[in-house]
Specification:
Elements (H helix, E strand, L loop, with lengths): L4 H26 L6 H8 L3 H7 L3 H21 L7 H15 L7 H9 L15 H19 L8 H20 L11 H8 L6
């Protein structure tokens, strides 16, 4: 029995999503410049010509991956209740980020790793690509650290140094999550990270 138009559309969408999911991992692991259409075709199990059927170029594959990433990450960041105390907000944000690293579909570890490392590819990624999510994670953490210091919850010190420590740890966890079975991958309790910031009387 011939397939219906709806079934054919579903097959096309499934293939397109597989290409995008595969490309995401490749861009995260190898970087934009090092990935070729050939790499994407082999990793996704598609014919070279099929990639071009859905996307006119590697650049357009990357743009679609980034559009998907942006909406996913903004939704995650905006799901935090920022009306609470800075320490509670940061704890909630870290928990959401840590928990998301275990999600297989979409591969949140690859998404977070790629987003946090976009600045390393500024000279090679297509323009205009808006990596505002990367900067948003940084600024959200930085602003919460600053507010926590102002309120007396957090230790004094250079807020950017605390932010670097948190973001670098997140990058490391994302790297590990990409290379481990999600069932055995574990993340630290956010309280461990918070204790780096919280004054003893606040714990």
């Amino acid at each position: 029995m011939p397939r219906t138009s709806k079934q054919l559309e579903q097959i096309k969408l499934k293939r397109k999503n597989k290409i995008l999911d595969t490309s995401l991992k490749l861009f995260a692991i190898k970087g934009y410049k090092a990935v070729s259409i050939d790499d994407i075709a082999k990793a996704s199990g598609c014919a070279h010509s099929l990639i071009y059927h859905y996307f006119p170029s590697k650049e357009e594959v990357f743009r679609q991956v980034m559009r998907n990433i942006r909406s996913i990450m903004i939704e995650l960041i905006d799901s935090v209740d920022y009306s609470k105390k800075p320490s509670e907000c940061l704890h909630e944000l870290l928990k959401k980020l840590f928990d998301s690293l275990k999600i297989k579909k979409p591969d949140m570890a690859a998404i977070i790793f790629l987003v946090l490392n976009l600045h390393l590819q500024d000279e090679v990624i297509p323009k205009p690509i808006n990596p505002d999510v990367e900067h948003r994670i940084w600024h959200v953490v930085l602003n919460l650290v600053k507010k926590g210091q102002q309120s007396g919850e957090f230790y004094d010190g250079n807020p950017e140094e605390f932010t670097i420590a948190i973001v670098t740890m997140l990058q490391g966890l994302a790297t590990k999550a990409m290379n481990m079975d999600k069932e055995v991958f574990i993340t630290p309790d956010p309280k461990i990270v918070m204790n780096m910031l919280l004054r003893k009387e606040q714990r």
